[in-house]
Amino acid sequence: IGDAAPLTGGSSASPYARVDGDPAPLNQRPLGLTRAIGPGYLRALGVPLLAGREFTERDGVDAPAVVVISRSAAARMFPNEDPLGRRILFGTDHQFGLPVEVVGVAADVRSLKLTEANDVEFYRPFPQRPAPFAQILVRTAGPPGAALGLVRAALAKIDSSLPVIQPGTMDDVVSASLAQQRLTTVLLGGFAALALLLAMVGIYGAVSYTVEQRAGELSVRMALGAQPGDVLRLVIAQGMLPVAAGLALGLAAALALGRLISAQLFQVSAHDPLLLAAATTGLALTALVACLVPAWRATRANPVEALRAT
């Protein structure tokens, strides 16, 4: 049980400070994401416990106040120290904050967004920090939908009037959290494909027009002994020259404007050399294909007929 599962939107933040030293006033303390959880919450979500212990049924209302902190919280509050057994001032209770003992360190979890790692996160026992609403997390080896009936039956034994609102799986939660990014990616991919198609058609049309205008010149070259391969290389070289200039300008623009698109990227650099090389190669191959067709047609033309037509 917990007041909210990761990526579900429910979150609260609490001020915190170390008990030792000179704690800052409440309004000057940093805030840390806070969860109220029951025993087994971390194991149900597959969050590794790096040190100490999880909460148990003994961590009730009348038990000593305890907290499990994230690895980032431990690194920030107790650098090069063992955080277990240390005490921190947590929340706004008792004017200076509630003294709580650190009993465990859990791995970091991307609780708010998959693209943002949490710097600090605290877990408090649910009985010591109750919430008006709760989420029940069930880990099952079988189909998740099959466990819903078992959950409803277990809740009915406690209180038959308890409603189960919006049941779902963590896969659904993750998909919903990525909906905006996926829509943006699909739109960008569609516009990129359209731009690539327009570029290919444009290059093909420009090279075809140039070949048609130079039909006489090419016929003379072939009549004087130029081989089809020579004409092919000539047409492709002249068609690819502006493409190479455009790719160079585009690559420079991508490097200069990389920061503008970095917000849409997840664990990928806007200046990744492999991605830039792949995009440049793909565009160059597309342009090459667009140049090959009119160049091949130029080599298949009959020089005598081409000279008569001109």
Task: Explain what you see.
The protein is α+β, with helices and mostly antiparallel strands and 310 residues long. It has helices spanning 41-45, 71-77, 144-158, 170-177, 179-213, 215-223, 228-256, 258-261, 273-300, 303-309; strands spanning 12-18, 31-37, 49-52, 66-70, 87-90, 98-106, 121-125.
**Strand elements, count:** 7
Order of helices and strands: EEHEEHEEEHHHHHHHH
Q: What ranges have pLDDT less than 50 throughout 5 or more consecutive residues? A: none
Give the fraction of residues assigned to helices.
40-55%
Helix/strand layout:
Elements: E1 12-18, E2 31-37, H1 41-45, E3 49-52, E4 66-70, H2 71-77, E5 87-90, E6 98-106, E7 121-125, H3 144-158, H4 170-177, H5 179-213, H6 215-223, H7 228-256, H8 258-261, H9 273-300, H10 303-309
Offer a few descriptive terms.
7 strands; single chain; 310 residues; alpha+beta; 6-stranded mixed β-barrel
What's this, in brief?
This protein has 310 residues and is α+β, with helices and mostly antiparallel strands. Helices cover 47% and strands 13% of the residues.
